[in-house]
Design a protein that fits this description.
single chain, alpha/beta, 8-stranded mixed beta sheet, 42% helix, globular, AB_hydrolase_3, Alpha/beta hydrolase, GDXG_lipolytic_enzyme
């Protein structure tokens, strides 16, 4: 009887681990099912609610300060920590919406985890403000804060989806202006080619539960009305990659953008740019922002280690 009891005690951690693993898998599957259902219904409104300013739930926990530089707007998070480094965050949203609550929560947590300040740039968006208005806002805020000494030499640019593509574009702008570059870039499911002309896209577009292909193309047309999608400041795929800082790219294998990301990583590698590339099996667009998922937690951990 004592032997059986000892075996039971010894087995408990294994059982707990198995249950935890199953639960984490169920959570991922549940989130996917909810997103897919809304996509199939054509109803994205429950996911898309702009928060130009920080949600009230975060204002109780973090210190925020408005930024307004001649109409270019944003927010500081934990500005007092800027001497330890600054995370400049560019939100996704197809250049037509955002930031969303989940994006605010993501960058606030990154600021806390890294012990650094963050700057969230609420850049102007299409269709009212097509390219290059948003990129000019980003340039204005970064270069002005640099000139004021508010952004130190140790700073990083993070972006998801459209914000990921913009992160590469603004780095090239800063390079041309001989301004101080970010030490590293973090790109989560970045949109790197607005032409959407890669024939391999068809292999995963049907799996993408977050982004309908036609909606992606409509957003591209709103952002770039003249259809000059090969402009490197619109589509970093066609721009300069030489001398870019080290880059972490995270993407799911069930994303429309998967193939362009693989192609971009090849360009970076050929140019001898330091790149850490992570593919997450069967994960959807910008999953890295959702930290209740085990894959989101893993992506966050990897980002923290990359910046450390």
């Amino acid at each position: 009887m004592k032997i059986k009891k000892n075996l039971l005690v010894a087995a408990l951690p294994l059982v707990a681990a198995a249950v935890a693993y199953k639960w984490s898998t169920w959570k991922t599957d549940l989130v996917k099912a909810v997103i897919k259902r809304q996509k199939d219904k054509g109803d994205y409104k429950r996911f898309i609610k702009n928060y130009p300013g920080p949600p009230e739930s975060l204002q109780k926990k973090y210190a925020f300060e408005k930024i307004d530089i001649n109409g270019a707007r944003g927010y500081w998070i934990n500005k007092a920590q800027a001497n330890k480094g600054v995370l400049v965050y560019l939100h996704g949203g197809g250049y037509v919406f955002g930031p969303l609550e989940v994006q605010w929560k993501y960058i606030a947590r990154m600021s806390e985890e890294m012990g650094m300040a963050a700057v969230v740039i609420d850049y102007k968006m299409a269709p009212e403000h097509p390219f290059p208005a948003g990129l000019q806002d980003v340039e204005k805020i970064i270069t002005t804060l640099q000139a004021e000494g508010a952004i130190p030499e140790t700073y990083y640019i993070l972006g998801d989806s459209a914000g990921g593509g913009m992160a590469v574009a603004i780095t090239n702008v800063l390079m041309e202006k001989k301004a101080a570059l970010p030490k590293k870039l973090i790109l989560m499911s970045p949109w790197l080619d607005l032409s959407m002309s890669n024939p391999a896209i068809k292999f995963t577009a049907y799996k993408d539960i977050m982004l309908p292909l036609e909606e992606i193309k409509r957003s591209a047309n709103k952002y770039v009305p003249n259809r000059d999608f090969h402009n490197p400041l619109v589509s970093p795929m066609y721009g300069n990659v030489k001398d870019l800082p080290p880059i972490l790219i995270q993407i799911g294998t069930a994303e429309t953008f998967l193939w362009d990301n693989r192609k971009f990583v090849q360009r970076l590698t050929e140019a001898q740019v330091e790149v850490q590339y992570e593919e997450y099996p069967d994960m959807f667009h910008v999953f890295a922002l959702i930290h209740i998922l085990k894959e989101g937690k893993q992506a966050l951990k990897s980002q923290i280690e990359f910046l450390a």
